Amino acid sequence: MEQKYLHFRRQKRHHLKRMKRRRMATVAGAVVLICFIILGFLPTFGIISPGTNYCGKSLGFLTVKGAEKKLNKYEKEFQTAEVVLTHKKKSTTLTPPQLGLSVDEEQVAMDALAESRGRRFFGRMGQVFKKEAVQTPLAVDEATLNRRLRDLNGVLYETAKPATVAMKGERAVILPGNKGEVPDTAKARADLSRGIQSPVEIHTRIVEPAIEAQELAGIDGKLAEAVTTYDPADENRTTNVENGARYFRRIVLAPGEKLSFLSTIGGITEAHGFVKGKTVSNGVETEGIGGVCQVSTTMYNAVARSGLNVMTKFNHSKAVPYAKEGLDCAVSDGYKDFIFANPFTKPVYIETTAKEGTLTCTIYGPAEEKPYTIDLVPEKVRDLPASKEVAYSTDLAPGEIKILRQQVDGSIYITYAVYSVQGRELRRIPVAKSRYVPVDGKVLVGKGK
């Protein structure tokens, strides 16, 4: 009897435990179900679903403003992250700012909420286990990225090398170029925008050299060279001189072909890499893009001495410090261009460089078609006197003089091309007329109160 009673008590205790476990499981299940239901409704109330992340940073349970704040803190960390770029067996490491990459915090936060709301109700509940990333791409500054990819020449890839001309003793020789690679900037931009957690492969395509050796056939001598100097301490002017010279590196002119200085540059504007500084307009210094005319002047002195045909050339309104009167060449968008052509039966090669205060333009071509030397000799025809305007002021002491505008006389020059062989002059031809306008002076003279 006692055994039956003990057995009954044991069964009852097991039954009570089972019932307790069932109640606890039911309560826990209900709590879990309620939690999952709440998770499903969170996006409706402007809260990002848990499990949502961006670049490894969790955005779950945050509002758009909260996500922006968290991403803003991440942006500082992002700026110093390492981005590994690879190409074949080569690699290099840069930072996001160097590649023009940044995080658009506001857009990421809005996309995170939009993606949370875009899921079905049960999908929102299951998002906590999926750990899905927001698909907002990184912002990319294309100009910065393109510049950086070009700078990787010699680091990740080797670009094509054009055929060039160099002097070997007394003769010019043609150095052949070779094929090379250029980066696929569009693909690089797309790949980098998708994230930088893993190395990014930079794809390239094969390109032919810009100048083939056969294009230079017949070039065997230096026809002329001109050199001017500039002050590297003048940063704005130096930028314009060196940027302008880059447009006229490795120029090949076929027989009969013309070159327009302005068309080659495409516009003397800030969009083409130039910066504002001092320039001359109608004989008066003003604010503008200065320095480009030194490039055209240096080129003119080489072109005119090389035997190329100068078709259009303008002088400045005022004498310039880097060239003698009659030997300058002004250019200005819209109305002052420098145009010349190749009269030879063979091509000519123009190399213009600007470095460390020295601007050089060298022209190579068929030496046998120019058996003479050409010198440019400017001669003053007459002066153009400037007048002076005098005004009186009671603000100055009697006899005190204040110069408001410096008086500068003008002049007219004729420039001759002098052809010679072994120092013997063959002929002298006028090739340019230059008129430098007078600048009338203006002074104030004091007469007291």
Layout of helices and strands, plus pairs?
Elements: H1 2-41, E1 53-54, E2 57-58, H2 64-79, E3 83-87, E4 90-94, E5 101-102, H3 105-118, H4 121-130, E6 139-140, H5 142-151, E7 164-168, E8 171-175, E9 180-183, H6 185-193, E10 200-201, E11 204-207, E12 221-229, H7 235-246, E13 251-253, E14 258-260, H8 261-265, E15 277-281, E16 284-288, H9 292-306, E17 309-312, E18 339-341, E19 348-355, E20 358-365, E21 373-384, E22 388-393, E23 401-405, E24 410-421, E25 424-436, E26 441-446
Helix pairs in contact: 1-4, 2-3, 7-9
**How does the major sheet shape up?**
4 strands, antiparallel
* Structure classification: alpha+beta
In one word, what is the shape? elongated
Major sheet: arrangement of strands: 12-20-19-13
Radius of gyration over alpha carbons? 38 Å
Total number of helices: 9
Strand percentage, roughly? 25-35%
Number of strands: 26
| Range of helix content | 25-40%
